[in-house]
Amino acid sequence: MPKALLFDLDGTLADTDPLHLLAWQEALRPFGLAVDPAFYRERISGRLNPEIVEDLLGLKGEEAQRLIAAKEARFRELAQGLKPTPGLHELLKRAEEKGLTWGVVTNAPRENAHHVLKALGLSPPLLVLAEEVGRGKPDPLPYRVALKRLGVAPEEALAFEDSPSGVKSAAGAGIPTYALLTGHGAESLLEAGAKGVLRDFQEALDLL
After folding, report:
1. Are 57 and 131 part of one and the same domain?
2. With 90 as the cut, is the pLDDT of residue 60 above it?
């Protein structure tokens, strides 16, 4: 029985990827970049914003920050009335009944993370932001910080992710990791180190 559950945010707690896709499409269109779902999965999903903007456009510094701020403001405009991934509340209720703690580990900017959590009506006991720990996924550091703060060993936790980048981060920290099929195919998630794939959290109830 695990002692803690650790969740990614975007694409995991809620299917926010279609909204991020739309916001990136609008942000990158003036630069002549057409972002389709395949491009989003391969070049954007699971990465930190500064890396995305530098990789795609070669932008750094203030110019990059302005673009990122505009994109994220647009995402928050779009992210109204979010619905949790099916089975999430049931999983958290079961975890509470069994005395488990939980947390969120995300590459999302602070303002976005708080916006999404508030929209979902969630108050995690732990929130680890990659921008605050110094390195983002796929680096294992954010998950290692989460384990340290909760005082649990890697094998005493379960992680839930939705991107190869996130799976590599959690699995790289030694945590048994399950991946949701909200944005990526099973093959790429299993190759990244996922123990298994789930359609939603209803399928995760048997893990507790």
Report:
1. no
2. yes
Q: How distant, in Å, are the alpha carbons of 16, 59, 99, 163, 180 from that of 96? A: 25, 44, 5, 26, 21
Q: What is the CA radius of gyration of the chain?
A: 16
Pick the closest to residue 175 from 131, 205, 137, 140 (CA basis). 140
What would the two tokens of residue 2 be?
A: 């695990």
Q: How far apart are CA 58 and CA 47, in angstroms?
A: 15
Coil, helix or strand for 105? Answer: strand
Q: What is the mean pLDDT of residues 133-146?
A: 97
Residues 130 and 47 reside in one and the same domain: no
Q: How far apart are CA 25 and CA 46, in angstroms?
A: 16
Query: Could you tell me if 151 and 191 lie in one domain?
Result: yes
Helix (H, G, I), strand (E, B) or coil at 148: helix
Q: Which among 78, 99, 120 is the end of a domain?
A: 78
Do the Cβ atoms of 94 and 206 come closer than 8 Å?
A: no
My answer on whether 67 and 56 are in the same domain is yes
Is residue 17 within 8 A of residue 40, CB to CB? The reply is yes
Question: Tokens 């991934």 appear where?
Answer: 85
In angstroms, the CA 186 to CA 63 distance is 36
Examine the pLDDT at 1 and tell me if it is beyond 90: no
pTM exceeds 0.90 = yes
Which positions are catalytic? 8, 10
Q: Which residue range(s) make up the domain with 42?
A: 17-78
CA neighbor of 143 nearest in space, from 156, 130, 124, 125: 130
